[in-house]
Specification:
alpha+beta
């Protein structure tokens, strides 16, 4: 059971088809977190490898919800602000779209949001 909001992202520098890559969506969230490091302190962050299945996510959200970045909300999570969709799988609530993850974190942590 998660005790607070947990952000799952791909580790930078993963290998796919003989190339070393990074996830541009994870980079966008990492950039936001570098702008506002105080937000990072409010989360658990789990970096995952490229290959599927991504067991930590599959265990929480099922095989159909292992794309990243994804924010799995803790039991005391704030309600969704405007333009953020919270999905559910079993007992877990989560946000699966990158821009919505950033909107949620900005709105619920008191920092400026995206334009």
């Amino acid at each position: 059971m998660l005790t607070r909001d947990t952000l799952f992202m791909l580790k930078p520098g993963f290998e796919d088809q003989g190339r070393v890559c990074f996830c541009p969506y994870a980079a966008q969230v990492a950039g936001f977190l570098s702008y506002y490091p105080q937000v990072r302190d409010t989360l658990d962050i789990v970096e995952l490898g490229w290959p599927r299945p991504r067991k930590p996510l599959v265990d929480l959200l099922g095989e159909e919800n292992q794309a990243t970045p994804i924010l799995v909300l803790g039991p005391d999570a704030a309600p969704a602000p405007e333009r953020v969709t919270i999905a559910t799988h079993g007992e877990y609530r989560f946000i699966a779209k990158t821009i919505e993850v950033i909107r949620y974190l900005a709105a619920t942590r008191g920092v400026p949001g995206p334009h």
